[in-house]
Amino acid sequence: MIRHPLALLCLFFALPLFAQEHSRKLPMDTAIISTNTITIKGKPVPYRVETGVQPVYDDGGKVTAGLHYTYYRRSDVDDPNRPLLISFNGGPGSASVWMHLAYTGPKVLNIDEEGYPVQPYGISDNPYSVLDVTDIVFVNPVNTGFSRMAEGADREQFFGVNQDITYLADWVSNWVSRHDRWRSPKFLIGESYGTTRVSGLALELQNVRWMYLNGVVLVSPTEIGIPRDGIVEAANRLPYFAAAAWYHKRLPPAQQEQELETLLEEVETYTRDELLPALAAGMSLDAERKSEIAYTLTRYSGLDPQEWIDNNLMISTSYFWKNLLRGEEAGNYTVGRLDSRYRGIDAMAAGESPDYNSELTSWLHSFTPAINHYLREELGFRTDLQYNMFGPVHPWDRSGDRTGPNLRQAMAQNPYLNVMVQSGYFDGATNYYDAKYSLWHLDPSGRMRDRLSFKGYFSGHMMYLRRPDLEAANEDLREFIRSALPGEKPARY
């Protein structure tokens, strides 16, 4: 990597060279520039990296926070119409590290083919990065990564569904102005709670900042303000249960021997046409029918019929994670919440839920040393601040969440705006069938069906950790970006 000869380039304002003086106080307006080259799909792609901090302002123009970001711009292309991808992770309270160092950026973790950590920790080039077709900026909201509030700032202006959207829309608009990207086709990508964030930002940017988008990508989406509580939530778990049980070979031969996506299509149909109406029947469901359903649920979940009956045909995810592999034959393991391919060991085999999230502890093994090494040593962002993988943002105000309906409204007002959902089949936290359900109910009229798409993968919440899915997901994203560029087609119905 080649660094700018000054090591630290202060943009927009003259600021102290904090790279030479380690400090736990974040400079609110600064950047470091470096250059590099990566080979993507067999072709060299030179790029410029800018990692720095841009202020958040209140209505009176006072700095209330500084957001740390990392911006990758392809340097051999001088095109004002080149796409821009703005990336957020979730939590709320999670840094941008996950998609930054494992999905779309030019660097990926040193992990095995299935996503498990290996030592020595580190990073390598990402041969599947979408940097060949779009520039990318990874953003850390307040208190995540190196981003921090200014001294004396009011917490309540940041930590809530709508507060988060309001200040980030202003920050994004300012960032785009500073970097001369107003003519670029713009795309937002969010993972997990980041899908709530980008769904809300689509309308906020459009109606308050007059910034129109070409695409929004929802990776492992939350409910985005579209209700699916009660029996809908309970029924929607079944396809995920089937996927996880299939992976661990806990299904009867007739189901186990099917291709996963063929099996899931069958389970989805059963969920919608049989299970949901049965749950709606409640106590009016007779014992014979209840037993029949319990035996079908066993074929699709790997759990015993009596377990289903004892739980009124509504087994919780925590119970499933604890009990799918319970018993000596199955090894008495727990399975992961965010990615149920991962197994854990509890103090006691019995119980209602696992002692810990086996997948998250595995991920933190590799992500934490990698992001600290990369930002500090390779990009030269020297600071004594802790990089918050998960920052202090709670309590989080979840009131007034209309992010899904607002995304639909943004699509209706903007004929250029397309939406793609990406989900892993083994994700038990934001399961893929819930994601499909939200997509179906994002536009229940069906009039924008041609601008909505779903892609599924053979991994979990961070589906890109599995090497084949890293390639597939980036290719799906690359094609989504290309297809959302309308050329000279006017934005009209």
From TrEMBL:
- Position of the signal peptide: 1-19
Matching entries from SUPFAM superfamilies are given as:
alpha/beta-Hydrolases
Q: Which Pfam families match?
A: Peptidase_S10
What keywords appear on the UniProt entry? Answer: Carboxypeptidase, Glycoprotein, Hydrolase, Protease, Signal
A Gene Ontology molecular function term of the record: serine-type carboxypeptidase activity
GO biological process per UniProt: proteolysis
Give the matching Gene3D superfamilies: alpha/beta hydrolase
**PANTHER family, sorted:** RETINOID-INDUCIBLE SERINE CARBOXYPEPTIDASE (PTHR11802:SF3), SERINE PROTEASE FAMILY S10 SERINE CARBOXYPEPTIDASE (PTHR11802)
The identity of this protein, by name, is Carboxypeptidase C (Cathepsin A)
Origin organism is Neolewinella aquimaris
